[in-house]
């Protein structure tokens, strides 16, 4: 039996589905919330950038350095990902 054919006792949960849940869980997501690789990347980038901004007190220059970006590029990315440029409700 191949790994993709493994089914748990409830007949629904396959190994690939479990693996996907394990990858998404640290981001608070379920497999129904991420439809494409583009969606997953966007969700990860947004979560990661918000976390770095919080870590640096929402100081864009410090966060940009930590992310290895130029500050204007971080502002552009924040706009693209609809990240507010202040600490309220990211």
What would you say this structure looks like, in words?
By secondary structure, this protein is an all-alpha fold. The protein folds into two domains: 1-34, no CATH class; 35-90, Homeodomain-like (Arc Repressor Mutant, subunit A, Orthogonal Bundle). Helices cover 52% and strands 0% of the residues. The chain has helices at 15-24, 37-55, 60-67, 71-80. The protein is elongated and about 45 Å long. Residues 1-8 have low confidence and may be disordered.
Give descriptors for this structure.
90 residues; mainly alpha; Arc Repressor Mutant, subunit A; 2 domains; 4 helices; 52% helix; disordered N terminus
**Secondary-structure element sequence?**
HHHH
The overall pLDDT, averaged over residues, is 80
The CATH architecture name of the largest domain reads Orthogonal Bundle
Q: Any idea of the CATH class of the largest domain?
A: Mainly Alpha
Helix content: 40-55%
Largest sheet: none
Q: What general form does the structure show? A: elongated
From the 3D structure, determine the CATH topology of the largest domain: Arc Repressor Mutant, subunit A
- Spans of at least 5 consecutive residues whose pLDDT stays below 50 are 1-8
Helical/strand content category: mainly alpha
Tally of helical runs: 4
Q: Find the count of extended strands (DSSP E, 2+ residues).
A: 0
């Amino acid at each position: 039996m191949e790994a993709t054919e493994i089914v748990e006792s409830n007949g629904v949960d396959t190994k690939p589905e479990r693996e996907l849940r394990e990858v998404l869980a640290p981001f608070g997501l379920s497999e129904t919330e991420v439809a494409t690789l583009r969606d997953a990347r966007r969700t990860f980038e947004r979560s990661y950038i918000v976390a770095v901004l919080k870590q640096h007190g929402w100081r864009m220059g410090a966060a940009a350095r930590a992310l290895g970006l130029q500050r204007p590029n971080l502002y552009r990315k924040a706009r693209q990902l609809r990240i507010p440029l202040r600490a309220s409700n990211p």
